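Notes to self after the Tuesday call (sharing in case useful).
The group wants a holo model before anyone commits to mutagenesis around the pocket. I volunteered. Ligand is 2-acetamido-2-deoxy-beta-D-glucopyranose. Logging inputs and output together so the record is complete.
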Amino acid sequence: MACDILLVMLLLFLAANCIQYGVHGVSQVPCLFIFGDSLSDSGNNNELPTSAKCNYRPYGIDFPAGSTGRFTNGRTEIDIITQLLGFENFIPPFANTSGSDILKGVNYASGGAGIRNETGSHLGGSISLGMQLANHRVIVSEIANKLGSPDLAQQYLEKCLYYVNIGSNDYIGNYFNPQFYPTSRIYSLEQYTQALIEELSLNLLALHDIGARKYVLSGLGSLGCVPHVKHLYGTNGSCVEEQNSAAFKFNNKLNALVDQFNNRFSADSKFICKGTAPKAIDTHEFSVSDAPCCPFGCIPDQKPCNNRSDYVFWDDVHPTEAWNLLRAMSAFDSITDQTFTYPMDIKHLVDYEIKRELEFTNETTSLRATE
Ligand SMILES: *[C@@H]1O[C@H](CO)[C@@H](O)[C@H](O)[C@H]1NC(C)=O
Ligand SMILES: *[C@@H]1O[C@H](CO)[C@@H](O)[C@H](O)[C@H]1NC(C)=O
Ligand SMILES: *[C@@H]1O[C@H](CO)[C@@H](O)[C@H](O)[C@H]1NC(C)=O
Ligand SMILES: *[C@@H]1O[C@H](CO)[C@@H](O)[C@H](O)[C@H]1NC(C)=O
Ligand SMILES: *[C@@H]1O[C@H](CO)[C@@H](O)[C@H](O)[C@H]1NC(C)=O
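Result:
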């Protein structure tokens, strides 16, 4: 009961946000580019020879277009953020941009993918962060063609938002999967985490070179509380501390990276991160946080639970739309939880740019006025 009331309140809040920010169907940023894994994938894996695939029922059971390749019952977190930003449509997957306007952005995220190139190979192969960046370069040159020159493309791309949510698979799938990957024999957890952050930061710098100025970086969730991980360790319900502390280490280093980049690029860029605080969001609002809604892992045509908004987890690994909604709203507007974003929420990140644009407009108007 309490949960239903909470959900209704969340939905009302969401509706209010949409009215407040989405007026006249004009989005707050002209474009959004998405990098990541299954938490953000919207169909890039559908034609890949990988077992990290979900373009079948019951996935998408609560999504208007059905099973699109989203690893949840409804919208992903970034889908909901996309709506909060006022976009009329979801951002199309790189694998199928036909019929979509790439000037509004592209989603490169791939289920199973990691920061490291080899992550996900045991599932058949995913599109790693480096390859996602290569795909972005293809889109950037298409945008340059559309706009008439690489310079115009660069100017345009500087106005976009760049969302990066990746790293979970580098731990769950790679480091803590020694049967398939040697990394835990090569690195200590501390060294591995440092190597991940360094590789992530190289990719963020490469993105900066091709126009990215506003970044939303996502921390990792409590990996040790994922049902799949608990089953593997046979913990009989309790979370796996080793994996939670890996996520915690990653998140601390991500916070430090955000500080470092905000200092280094204070003249032209802004980086924020979300979900890096130790207790990012409590699961207490949900009546079921330890078992997935699909009791046997959302295999094709399986019947999921009825009360999906009571559950944190949809399948063995991925959260429900209800959980995504809570996370997206906290990332967008941290009014209810100040610690959820750092150093500001997405709403303020967007405002920050608008101020710069206003100054610029004022400058050009006064220039024109003196002519
Ligand atoms: C590609 O996207 C378009 C527009 O969203 C959609 O109508 C079409 O079904 C998609 N094609 C495939 C193969 O998914
Ligand atoms: C990972 O792949 C990218 C893109 O294919 C490549 O540029 C990069 O050098 C690779 N990184 C490593 C560590 O092999
Ligand atoms: C598992 O947890 C349940 C509930 O907390 C408890 O009743 C049961 O004895 C535990 N089983 C084992 C093997 O520890
Ligand atoms: C979900 O609904 C079923 C009946 O449809 C009920 O038996 C079950 O207790 C509910 N679960 C929760 C967590 O509310
Ligand atoms: C606009 O520019 C003028 C002249 O440079 C300045 O006096 C004024 O404060 C500016 N207005 C805003 C809103 O920045």
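Two things stood out.
Confidence is low (pLDDT under 50) at residues 1-23, 366-371.
Residues 346-370 form the longest helix (25 residues).
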